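Entry 12.
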Amino acid sequence: MKPLLKHSTRTLLALVIGLALLACNEPEAEQQSLAPMAFHDSDECHVCGMIITDFPGPKGQALDKAGVKKFCSAAEMLGWWLQPENRIGDAKLYVHDMGRSDWAEPDDSHLIAATSAFYVVGLGDSGLKGAMGAVLASFADEQAAGKLAAIHGARVLRFEQIDQGVLQQAAATQH
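Predicted 3D structure (tokens):
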């Protein structure tokens, strides 16, 4: 009878260890999706600490294995991302598609990959307000971005074309 009991104990131990390992992997698998998250009234900007939903215009967020960082504007997120220490890892960046969102209250169901967005830069005299600093409008569609740029004498840039100089110049034109 002892050998049977010894076998059952090993089987039970292996089952418990297997379940524990499986349970440990579930949250990691969920985090790996790195899908955009909704903004909430209590969310604070990762850079400046201001309440994100207090401001109009497109917001940004960066998601990685460590969690989510939310920003009160697309420009704040891009400024953060351009810092060398933040470009490490596999962060996914998202911004609102302003071609499908209301400027005053962007719709979180229209968050798009920041790396594939078109950005309207130079909106200083447009009357479009945002958080402090530069106001950039992010779009999924190049034609929609071009229309806004043409109306306000602004320009359309891709993610790769935005650097600290572009952000500083855009901030300097805000009134």
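Annotation: Helices lie at 2-32, 74-81, 142-152, 164-172. Residues 15-31 have pLDDT under 50 and may be disordered.
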